[in-house]
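Researcher: Quick one. two chains, 666 residues in total.
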Amino acid sequence: MKKLINQPNDVVREALAGMQEAHGDLLTVHYSPDFVIRANSPRKGKVALVSGGGSGHEPLHGGFVGLGMLDAACPGNVFTSPTPDQIEAATKAVNGGMGVLHIVKNYSGDIMNFEMAADLCRDGGIEVEAVVIDDDVAVKNSLYTEGRRGVGCTVFAEKICGAGAEKSMNLKQVADVCRKVKANGRSMGMALTSCTVPAAGKPTFDIGPDEIEMGVGIHGEPGRERMKQMTAREYVEMMGDAVVSDIPFKSGDQLIVLLNGMGGTPLIELYVLYNEFAKLCQKKGLDIARKLVGNYITSLDMQGFSISALKADAQLLDLWDAPVNTPGLRWGM
Amino acid sequence: MKKLINQPNDVVREALAGMQEAHGDLLTVHYSPDFVIRANSPRKGKVALVSGGGSGHEPLHGGFVGLGMLDAACPGNVFTSPTPDQIEAATKAVNGGMGVLHIVKNYSGDIMNFEMAADLCRDGGIEVEAVVIDDDVAVKNSLYTEGRRGVGCTVFAEKICGAGAEKSMNLKQVADVCRKVKANGRSMGMALTSCTVPAAGKPTFDIGPDEIEMGVGIHGEPGRERMKQMTAREYVEMMGDAVVSDIPFKSGDQLIVLLNGMGGTPLIELYVLYNEFAKLCQKKGLDIARKLVGNYITSLDMQGFSISALKADAQLLDLWDAPVNTPGLRWGM
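Model:
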C-alpha cells in the first residue's frame, strides 16, 4: 500500500487537523468526541443540520459545513459509522433552539447510531427529525444496507436543506424539503479499481485489469455486475438509463445533476463523462438545469464515477441557487 | 489501461465539449483551432490574459477561464504544447485593445509556440507581453525544459494577474505583477504512481510498489531521486524545506500556499499533508496567510502531490482576495 499518510490509525484525526488549519474561518473541529461544526455555532433561531458517516468520502461531510449547508458533520473512522456520542455532542453543539435535522445515509450502522443519538437529544429537550437518503438504484439490499444505499443525493439534500434553514424554514419544513429530495433523487456508480482502506493495507476487492464493477457502492460494496471494460459512452448510457428510468424522470423535467468522481479519477475524464450524460439527457428531453462536475462524494483512491440526478421544481432550484460557503461548495458569496 | 474515455484521440475534444456543457455560462469553447475563451469576449478596455499548455492538468488552464482570471486557455493534446495557431487565434479573440499577457509555463515547446504566436499577433498590431513561470525547485533542466519547470505557481500567476487586469491595470503593470509572482513563488512535487497518457496506453514510467519519485514533473519527468516510501510528514519536510529555503522565505513572511493533488490523490490525504505543512511553516515562523487544498494542476491519474508557496506582499494578497468566478476557483461572487 502506498499512501500519503503517517500511521493508518491517525489518518482521520490528522485530516481533521488539516481541515481546521485550512478552513478555520468556516469551521471548528472538536475532538473526543470528534465532530466538525460551523464557526460561531450555535445559530440562534435557525434549524440546525447535522450529517455524518464514515470518513473516506471527502469532501462529504466535513467539507460541506458552513453557511447554507451543514451546521455539523460527524466523521467516523474510515468507512465506519460515527458513534452515538459523536452525533449527540454535535447535535447539542449546534442546536439553536429551533430543532435539528439529521441527514443520514442509508447504512445500518449509521441509522442505528443516529437514532440512538436522536433519542438522547430528545431526552435532553432538543427536537430532532431524521431523514434517511437511499438513492442508489444499483442494488436493493447490500453489504451494510437494507434497501437502497445512500450516496450522491446526500450532497443535494445537504445543500438544499441548508438553504431552507437559512431562509428561516422551521424543522418540519426543512425535513419536508429533505423528504422531497429523497423522493426525487436517484444515483448509480461504477469503479475501475478498488479503494484501499489505510488500516486494511490492501484493496477492498480484487478486480482484473480489463474488468469494472458496475453499480459499485461507495465503500467498494459489490454492484450489479462485474463486466468487461467498455467506453465512457457505454458506461453513461447504462448508468444514466438506470438513474433516469427509476422514478422515472419524464421529458420536460428539470434536473440537478452531479457527475461525481470517486477520488482517483482525473477531471479530464469526468468532463468526457459529463459530455455523454448531457447528450443522453438531451435525447430523452430532460433539461439539466443545474450541474456539478467533480469530486463530491468519494471512496478514498477508487477510480470510478457516479451519476446523481434530482428532479427539481421551482422550490428546489431556488434553494439550490441560494448562497453557500463551505470548503467543498461555494457560490453566491 | 483502464480509463473512463471513448477513444484516446478524442479525449481532449470530448472533455472540451463537456466543459462547454457544464460551464457555458462562464466560457465558450472554439474548435479548429481549439481554445476556450471567457463568455462575451473580448472585454473592451481590459488587458486580456491568455495561457495554455498540454491537456491532462485540469482544471489548469481551461478551468481557470472566467471573471478575475484567464480570458483564454489553449489546450494542446495531452502533455503536448498548443500550436501557434491556437494561441494566435485565442489572443486575437480576447484582445480588447489594451494588450494581451501570455502566461507560459517553462517547457521548451510551450515557449517556442507562444513566442511564434506573439510575433504573429504583434504583426497584426496587438501588443503582447509574455512571462514564463519557472517555479519548480526539484531540478535544473529536465526532459522538455531548460532551466526550472513551470508548475503550481502558474495558478497563483493566473489568479493574481487576472485580478490586476480586472482592476484596470495596464499591460506593463499586469506583466510586472506576473514577474513578481514568478520571482517570489516556488514549488516541488512527488509521485507514488505514474500517470498513463491515453494515447500511450501504458504508464509513463515504472515505479516499484514501495518506491516514490521525489521531485517529479507534471508530465512524469524524473525528479531528484527515486526513494523508498516514507511518511506524509517526511515527504512534507523534504519538499517543504526545498520550497521555502530556495529564495529563501524568512520568518515573518506571509505566504499564499497551494497544497495540490496530482489527480489520483484522495482529499483526505491532502488534508493530512496540509496539516504537516502548516506545522512546518509554524516552526519556521512563516505565516500562511491564504491557502488552497485540492486538485488544481494535475497529471492525469497520477497519485502524488505538490507544494507551492508564494511570498506575498499587501498588493499580492489584495489581488488574491479579489473576486474570481471560474469553474476551478470561485470566491467573492
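The first helix of chain B runs from residue 11 to 23.
Researcher: Thanks, that's what I needed.
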